[in-house]
Every structure is written in C-alpha cells, then in structure tokens.
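Section 3.1: Structural characterization of target chains.
Under the original work plan, the team committed to producing a structural model for every single-chain target entering the pipeline before any wet-lab resources were allocated. The record below documents one such target. The sequence was received from the expression subgroup and is listed exactly as submitted; it comprises 243 residues.
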Amino acid sequence: MDFDTSLSAIVYPELKTTHRLDFGLNFHIWRDKIDFVLVDNKVDYVLTEQKPPENDVARHKQQWLHDDYTARHLILGALTDHIYMTYQKHETAKSLMDALTATFTKPSMTKRMYKLKRYVGHKMAEDKSVNEHILEMGSMAYDLECEGLKIPDEVQAVMLMNSVPDSWDEMMTPVRLNMDLDKSGDPDMGLDRVSSRLRAIGVSKESFWRREEDEAKQRRPHFNGHCHSLGEYGHHRAHCNME
C-alpha cells in the first residue's frame, strides 16, 4: 500500500479538524502550518505576487487564478465555521491572509483575558501523560506571550505545580518545600527543575498503576474445575461460546 507522506497529507487533516483557526488557537503556529501546506502545493507565491493585469499573457494569468483559487480554499478550509463566514468574502488568498493576520496578531485585551483564564484554570486529567500536560501548559504560556503577556518562568513553575491532579498532592509536597527553602534564586528550582520533577513523579505513578493492575489480575479467582457444558478444564460455562 502506498502512503502519501507529503506535508499536506500530514499537516492539513488536523488543520481541517481539531486545529482549525479560532480565537483560542495560536495564530502564529497555525500560520506556519498552513504555509507548509501552501508551499507543498506550490501555490504560496500568490500571497506575495500581485494578480496579473488583464492584458497579461493568458496562460500565466490563468495559472495564477487557478493557484490563487486553490490557496484561498486551502486557507478557508482551515477556519472554524464562524471565522469562515466572516472572512470568505475576500476574493484572493492574499487579501484573505492579510485580513486574518491583521485580526489575529492585533493586541487584544479580550484575547489576553480569554487565554489567561484558560491557562490559569487548566488541570491535568488523571489519565493524561505528564509529558503531554507539560507541553500543553508551555504552549498556553507561549500563546499569552504572543499576545504581549509574558509569563515569567517562576510563575509558570507555580502554575504547572498547581495544575496537577489532587491525587498528586502527597508526592508534590517535597517539590513545594524545596522551592520554599530555596532563597538563593537558584534557577534549578525554576520551571525546568519542576518539569523534571513532575516527569519523575509521572513515571513513578505509572509504574505503581501497572503494578496494581498486575496484582489485581493475580488476585482474580481461577476456576479449577471442568465446564459443565463442554467438559473443558479451567473455565466456567458462562465462558463458553454457545452459539
């Protein structure tokens, strides 16, 4: 079986689904990804080259119009419905991208407050990988920085510790104490050290859960008799396939 490994095949499906452009998404990351797709489809030049004049060579003009149509619809396909309805009126890919850039890169107190609230209230789910959670928190902090609100590393470290599940409290106590005792401003007790400690705790908890699962399996009662239905050893009648 042949697999399409082009950038479009890898990146664009998520831009059409879970990472469509909306006000809660990092525009700079979205822009990088959509640029990958436009370059891969060889239509990125329409964002920098003006539309050919009416008296231009027909073949060149037709190619530009075709590529602009492709680029415009690739961009529109990566927008949420309400963003799409607002911006689909733009007739060229350049006009569309310029309008999106102006809107999403303009400093906005509303966007800052929305992203700050999302960052402060974010909590790690019990079944989520700690590495994934650390990346999510870092991404949200970067989103805020792009909005002109830089979160200092020491604040990110505190926010990261406060975002773990309540079941982590006992294991987090030594980490918090170490930070309280560190009066020298040692950067090792900052964001990198906290992230490292959380990863270690995550590994420890995952090992504990696996151990508990193995022990639970070993504690399950084993049927030593014969099945009354088929006469086979080691399982109940309910385990038989009676169809």
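The CA atoms of residues 213 and 219 lie 10 Å apart.
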